[in-house]
Backbone:
C-alpha cells in the first residue's frame, strides 16, 4: 500500500528540536567561526597551535556528548540535560564577552560541558518519536539539520561584521544571547518533549542525585578548562575514551542476541565511515579558513568580504539542499526505491573529495598567488555541504534506523565522540600539513603549500570512498538480516 501524505507528517517534537537547535547553533558558531582567527590575533598563536587548541576544544565538546547521552538515558533525563547544557553554554559565551584573557579556559570549559549535556538531547527526543523503520526518519532528521544550519547561516552573516566593528568580545556576547534565546524557546515549546523523555526524566530526582550532578558538572568544567589549555593531554583523553568505547561495544556484542549483534556492528562500521568524513569536514575550520584569509580574492563590487562570512556558504547550501533531499527521500520511499544508508555515506565521502578537487583547480587557475577566485570557494562549499547532508545529517537517522533502542543514547554519544571528537583531534593534526610558517610571506609559496595539502586530502578521500563502496553491500546485508528477523523492510 502506498504511503499517504498524512503518514509522512512529522511529529510535533520536530518543531521544538528545530527551533532550539537553531538558536543553540547560532550562539555556538559565533565561537567556532572566530576561534582560530581570535587565537592568532589576540594570543599570537602559530597556525599549528591554533589548530590544536581548536581541535582540543571541539574534540572535548563532542567527547562530553557520550557522558551527556549516558546521563540523559540513565540518571538525569533528556529534558534536564538539555536545560543544563543551554545554561552552561550561555554562561561560557557570555564570559568570553568579558575582556579578560585569563577567562578563556574557564569559558571554553563551560561551553564544552554545555555542548556535552545538550547535543544529543534534541536528536534523542526526535528519534524516540518515530516507530521502527518509520518512513519519516530521514526527511525528519534532514529538516532538523536544516534548522541547525539556519542558525549557523545567520551567525555567518553577523559574526564577521560584529567582530570588525564591535570587537571580539561583543561578538562572543552575541553568541551568549543566542544560546539564552534557545533556552527560552525550549521552555516555551517543552510540552511536546514530556512524553518522550527517558525513564529517569519522568521521575523526580532526590536531593542526593541533584547534589551529585551539580558537583559533577563543576568538576567536569574544571577538567575541561585544564585539558583545553593542554591540547596534547586532551588528545590522549579522546583516544583513551575511544578505546574504552571499543571494549564496551565488544562486551555488548558478545552478550546481545544475534540480530542485535548485527545492528551494533553495522552502526560501528558506519560510524567509522563518519570519522573519515569528519576529518575532512574539520578542514573548513582550520586549513580552509586560513587559505581563504590568505590566498582568496575576497573583494566583491569594491566591498571587502570578511573571512568569516565564507562560513555562511555551508549553511546557505544546507538550507537550499535540505528541503530538496527531504522531498527526494519521501518520493523514493513512496515509490519503494529507498537508497540505503550504506550507499549514502560513501557517496557523501566522494562528494567531499570533489570539494578539495575544486580548491586545487581554483589554486592552479588563480590569476595571482593571492587572487584565487571566490567562485571556487562557492563551488567547494557546495560539494562540502552535499557530502555533509549525506553523512552528518543522516548520522543520527542511521542510529535511529539501526541501533537497538536501549542503546540510542550511548550510540548517539559514540557518533559524536568517534565521528566528531576524535576527528577534531585527527583533523587538526591533518590540517598541520597545510600549516604556513610564521616567517613565510611569499604568496606563491603559501599557495603552493595549500595546493599540495588539498591534493593529498582529495586523493586520500577518493581511495577511502572506493573502500567504503566495496564494503557497503556487506553492511547492508547486516541491516537486512535485522529487518527480516523483525519482518520489516530495510529503509
Residues:
Amino acid at each position: 500500500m502506498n504511503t499517504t501524505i498524512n503518514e509522512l507528517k512529522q511529529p510535533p517534537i520536530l518543531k521544538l528540536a528545530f527551533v532550539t537547535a537553531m538558536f543553540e547553533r547560532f550562539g555556538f558558531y559565533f565561537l567556532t567561526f572566530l576561534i582560530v582567527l581570535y587565537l592568532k590575533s589576540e594570543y599570537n598563536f602559530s597556525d599549528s597551535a591554533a589548530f590544536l587548541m581548536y581541535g582540543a576544544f571541539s574534540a572535548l565538546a563532542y567527547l562530553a556528548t557520550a557522558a551527556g547521552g549516558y546521563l540523559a538515558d540513565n540518571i538525569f533525563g533528556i529534558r534536564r540535560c538539555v536545560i543544563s547544557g543551554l545554561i552552561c553554554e550561555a554562561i561560557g559565551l557570555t564570559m568570553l564577552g568579558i575582556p579578560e584573557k585569563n577567562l578563556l579556559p574557564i569559558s571554553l570549559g563551560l561551553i564544552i560541558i554545555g555542548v556535552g549535556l545538550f547535543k544529543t538531547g534534541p536528536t534523542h527526543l526526535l528519534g524516540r518519536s518515530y516507530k521502527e523503520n518509520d518512513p519519516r526518519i530521514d526527511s525528519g532528521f534532514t529538516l532538523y539539520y536544516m534548522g541547525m544550519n539556519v542558525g549557523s547561516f545567520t551567525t555567518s552573516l553577523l559574526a564577521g561584521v560584529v567582530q570588525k566593528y564591535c570587537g571580539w568580545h561583543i561578538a562572543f556576547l552575541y553568541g551568549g544571547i543566542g544560546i539564552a534565546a534557545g533556552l527560552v524557546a525550549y521552555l516555551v515549546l517543552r510540552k511536546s518533549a514530556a512524553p518522550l523523555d527517558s525513564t529517569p526524566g519522568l521521575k523526580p530526582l532526590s536531593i542526593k542525585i541533584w547534589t551529585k550532578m551539580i558537583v559533577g558538572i563543576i568538576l567536569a568544567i574544571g577538567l575541561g578548562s585544564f585539558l583545553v589549555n593542554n591540547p596534547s593531554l586532551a588528545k590522549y583523553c579522546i583516544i583513551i575514551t575511544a578505546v574504552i568505547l571499543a571494549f564496551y561495544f565488544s562486551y555488548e556484542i558478545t552478550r546481545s542476541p544475534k540480530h542485535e549483534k548485527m545492528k551494533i556492528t553495522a552502526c560501528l562500521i558506519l560510524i567509522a565511515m563518519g570519522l573519515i568524513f569528519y576529518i575532512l569536514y574539520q578542514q573548513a575550520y582550520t586549513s580552509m579558513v586560513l587559505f581563504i584569509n590568505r590566498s582568496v580574492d575576497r573583494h566583491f563590487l569594491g566591498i571587502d568580504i570578511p573571512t568569516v562570512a565564507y562560513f555562511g556558504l555551508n549553511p546557505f547550501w544546507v538550507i537550499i539542499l535540505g528541503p530538496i533531499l527531504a522531498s527526494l527521500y519521501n518520493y523514493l520511499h513512496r515509490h519503494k526505491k529507498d537508497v540505503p544508508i550504506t550507499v549514502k555515506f560513501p557517496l557523501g565521502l566522494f562528494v567531499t573529495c570533489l570539494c578539495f578537487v575544486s580548491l586545487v583547480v581554483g589554486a592552479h587557475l588563480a590569476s595571482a598567488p593571492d587572487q584565487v577566485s571566490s567562485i571556487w570557494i562557492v563551488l567547494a562549499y557546495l560539494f562540502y555541504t552535499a557530502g555533509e547532508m549525506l553523512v552528518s545529517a543522516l548520522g543520527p537517522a542511521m542510529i535511529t534506523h539501526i541501533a537497538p533502542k536501549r542503546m540510542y543514547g550511548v550510540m548517539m554519544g559514540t557518533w559524536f565522540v568517534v565521528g566528531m571528537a576524535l576527528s577534531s583531534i585527527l583533523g587538526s593534526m591533518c590540517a598541520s600539513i597545510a600549516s604556513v610558517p610564521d616567517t613565510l610571506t611569499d604568496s606563491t609559496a603559501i599557495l603552493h603549500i595549500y595546493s599540495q595539502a588539498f591534493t593529498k586530502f582529495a586523493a586520500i578521500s577518493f581511495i577511502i570512498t572506493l573502500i567504503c563502496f566495496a564494503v557497503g553491500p556487506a553492511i547492508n546485508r547486516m541491516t537486512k538480516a535485522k529487518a527480516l528477523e523483525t519482518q520489516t523492510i530495510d529503509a
User: Anything to note?
Assistant: The radius of gyration is 22 Å. The longest helix spans residues 443-485.
